[in-house]
User: Fold this.
Amino acid sequence: MDPSGKVAIVTGGNSGLGEGGVHRLLRAGATVVSLDRAGKPPLGADFIECDVSDQACVKSAVEQVAERYGEIHMLLNNAGIGGLGGVATAEGPCDMDQFRRIIAVNLVGATQVAAHVSHRMIGNKPSGTDRERGVIVNTCSIASFEGQEGMGAYAAAKAALAALTLVWARDLSRHGIRVNAVAPGFMDTPMVASLPPDFVAELIDGNEFPKRAGTAEEYAAVAEFLIRTPLINGEVVRLDAGARPPARSHWASGQ
Assistant:
């Protein structure tokens, strides 16, 4: 799908990877609406405040986009939060409220947005040679495949989202809607800005090449490629410089 002249929703679009996606789609000629809880959208983008874990909020936000712009053609399903904690320690079981919150945003929230947006996409007029109606790009993680110690909730949510990518592609293919995903490794975003330098160095050292953090611009380039390439459907593309995280980090385990 050519983004030019089309309408895109980007969740978590006011910062980090989502902001990179907003900038990229704006440059490609799309009308872009950021759904986020706080912050300011990139210049040129529209903004609707939305907590993706709240279904009523998601429904209202998607309705507002449809009312303002008519059809919705693209979704970058990016909003997410982090969090660490083992399933149990000698002191007691894990914090289940935190576990549920991460699942509520990263998995249930992503599903709610995809459900409401794809419902709107089904009514779009087909476009292009392949008569596409829409494209969804989920933001997964290398934790979808190799979750490290203490990443239970985050890995569970991202692994499920990776699995759902093919399921949703199969659900929506009859309507001319494609679903793919990007699985970033360690990226330079506000979510990781507070991590200790020694921990960051260890994570980057796990990259094969190049040994550096990824950027929002690189994420956005892959997302645009998936949007523009009709034959790619139901796929999860790793963006991790060849990293395969070990079971645990030496820094986190105090070794």
